[in-house]
Design goal:
Blueprint: H1 9-16, H2 26-36, H3 41-50, H4 54-65, H5 70-80, H6 85-100, H7 106-119, H8 125-137, H9 140-153, H10 158-168, H11 182-193, H12 203-217, H13 234-250, H14 258-272, H15 275-285, H16 291-294, H17 301-313
Length: about 325
């Protein structure tokens, strides 16, 4: 049985929250609001318009799937259109998020993702769902295998590369600062393999932040990222400069997840003490902060973001 529409106050509660995974995708925000009221037709139209823009499709389906009743509405959609691959993908990702929240068994999510993958073999999104699940619950060989499945379908998949970097950064947590750690090699390799205009050029900065999260959590680095030497070594400065220079040249205004990269880059520039460069990034970010990496290692992300922005731009 389909859930009832949420109370009218729900939208106001969402608007008050400082973080929104939809980022600046206004079409996605509108479709998500419609889905929350059970109007899945808006999602159908949105995904049809998205087509095979795989990074955008993955971003949109992942955000829609986080709605509390997304699985129920996706099942309603499938009752009306049993052959809909888009409905099957949405249901699969919704079940992944339910499993990650402990509301469903992972096996059901895995089965739904594989069923969706059979319906639309070229789509990396069902495999992204499996990667999200196994990133949290699976063995490392499963994570690597699923990453390869995503990359086979879309070699520059942004979200998948971020998930892989986060998992690799957790290897050898007690090894201490190691400039030769495998997460750095992976990120550099991915950035070099990607086209010149690919936002994967920022992946080495992401790797640096993810490794900091692990080291600080293990007591190997200061819990205050700005006080940590992790951000001021020669290698770190080279990585930050290369990523910032790439952004100045390419910027990639149209990429659906570019604001994730901008938050990582602004965080790095703040930790590096490069206030003017951080300020330029904060202007681009505007209100679209992301919890990661401002929460690293165990900080309140809203407070950390606001403090860093105020330091770079001055009080509002």
């Amino acid at each position: 049985m389909s859930p009832p529409p949420p109370p009218l106050g729900r939208g106001r509660k969402r608007a008050a929250h400082p973080f929104d995974d939809a980022l600046d995708d206004v079409e996605l925000v509108a479709a998500r609001a419609a889905l929350a009221q059970g109007r899945w037709q808006a999602v159908r139209a949105l995904l049809a318009r998205t087509g095979d823009d795989w990074d955008r499709r993955g971003h949109r389906v992942t955000v829609l799937a986080q709605e509390n009743h997304a699985a129920a509405w996706a099942r309603d959609w499938l009752l009306a259109e049993p052959e809909s691959a888009d409905a099957s993908v949405l249901l699969a990702l919704a079940l992944v998020h339910r499993a990650l929240r402990g509301k469903d068994k992972p096996g059901q999510a895995r089965q739904a993702c594989r069923a969706a993958a059979e319906l639309i073999p070229a789509d990396p999104t069902p495999w992204l769902g499996l990667l999200l699940l196994e990133r949290a619950l699976g063995a490392e060989e499963d994570v690597v295998r699923l990453f390869d499945e995503v990359r086979y379908r879309h070699p520059d998949h942004h979200h998948a590369h971020h998930l892989m970097v986060a998992r690799l950064a957790e290897r050898r947590a007690d090894a201490g600062p190691d400039p030769l750690h495998e997460v750095y090699d992976f990120a550099n390799w991915a950035a070099e393999q990607a086209p010149a205009d690919s936002p994967l050029a920022v992946l080495p900065v992401v790797a640096h932040a993810e490794r900091y999260r692990v080291l600080a959590g293990a007591g190997q680095e200061s819990a205050d990222p700005a006080a940590s030497g992790h951000w001021v070594g020669r290698r770190a400065r080279q990585v930050m400069k290369a990523a910032f220079d790439w952004w100045l040249e390419w910027e990639q205004e149209g990429h659906p997840r570019r604001l994730v990269d901008l938050n990582f880059l602004a965080h790095a520039k703040c930790c590096e003490g490069r206030g003017a460069e951080a300020a330029a990034l904060f202007h681009r970010i505007a209100e679209h902060a992301t919890p990661v990496p401002w929460s690293y290692p165990d900080r309140d992300p809203s407070a950390a973001f606001l403090a860093a922005r105020a330091a770079a731009l001055g009080p509002p």
